[in-house]
Design brief:
This protein is mostly helical. The protein is built from twelve helices and no strands. 78% of the residues lie in helices and 0% in strands. Helix 2 crosses helix 9, helix 4 runs antiparallel to helix 6 and helix 10 packs antiparallel against helix 12. The longest helix has 28 residues. It starts with a helix and ends with a helix.
Length: 281
């Protein structure tokens, strides 16, 4: 749980940094490629293949492709159509995807209690982030939902692999990032725009931070934490980035949230976590 909280704080800065300094200025595919290559380099010293079945290594690569590769490509593209608050709003369905996908992969029926606590978290995040929507509502909504589904598939898939085909997590993540980088390289060769590379030291610095800290360390801590909690708690924690992201906007960009919805929605997210841990689980 502590790792999930630390990672939530770490990621709270990413949304605004991408939306303010990278989206529309730097090619989205290039941003994804640099971010994932840097993250992969962090775990490259831990790459091992002896003693593991090829199918296991391929599965870890596959979840990396989904959770980071495809998810980032869709997510960065969505920033072209959405403001940061809209992007945050459209991520509130992730807890539902996490709990439903985990139940499907586990071969059990949908658990109503898990679904209820996830719905509370979704409602809380929606209360916080409901805002005037732009003309690109549907395009942005579809892109973010596809991105969220890929994130949930990868995250739950990693959790299930650690349950059924365990390996040391630093080794697992070396293959996880190999898969993510592979899909990013293919995307760059197909759709990359070399005319829109970073032009300032600030943009390069943000890419370095996103690659090494937010991705390299952040996703390791998040997925490691995901293996230590149940699917319901994991789903709920996915929506904690909404109030965290707003507080970052307040502290750095002085963007005041609408305090009554912020307090009500944030309280509902915390309440959903407490209800889930106290009664549902």
């Amino acid at each position: 749980m502590a790792l999930l909280i630390i990672t939530t704080i770490l990621w709270a800065f990413s949304f605004s940094l991408i939306g303010v300094y990278l989206a529309g200025q730097v090619d989205s595919v290039f941003s994804v490629l640099v971010r994932l290559v840097l993250a992969a380099l962090v775990f490259l010293p831990f790459l091992r293949w002896r003693g593991y079945r090829a199918s296991t290594l391929l599965l870890y690569m596959l979840v990396g492709m989904m959770q980071l590769g495809v998810m980032y490509l869709l997510g960065f593209e969505a920033y072209l159509y959405l403001s940061v608050p809209e992007f945050l709003l459209f991520t509130v369905m992730t807890p539902l995807y996490v709990t439903l996908i985990y139940d499907l992969l586990s071969g059990r029926g949908v658990r109503i209690g898990y679904l209820f606590s996830a719905l509370l978290a979704v409602l809380g995040a929606a209360i916080i982030r409901y805002d005037q929507l732009s003309d690109h509502f549907w395009t942005g909504l579809i892109l973010v939902q596809l991105s969220n589904i890929c994130f949930a598939i990868g995250m739950v898939g990693y959790k299930r692999l650690q349950e059924t085909r365990p390996m040391p997590q630093h080794t697992a993540f070396s293959w996880f990032y190999m898969g993510a980088v592979l899909i990013a390289i293919i995307a760059w060769l197909l759709w990359g725009n070399p005319q829109k590379l970073p032009t300032t030291h600030l943009q390069w610095g943000i890419l370095l931070w996103l690659g090494i800290a937010a991705s390299g360390l952040g996703y390791f801590m998040w997925n490691y934490g995901a293996t230590q909690v149940d699917a319901g708690t994991l789903g709920i924690m996915n929506n904690m980035h909404v109030p965290a992201g707003l507080l970052v906007n307040l502290a750095i960009w002085q963007e005041q949230p609408d305090w009554p919805p912020f307090i009500i929605g944030g309280g509902l997210i915390i309440a959903s976590l407490w209800i889930h841990r106290r009664w549902v689980r």
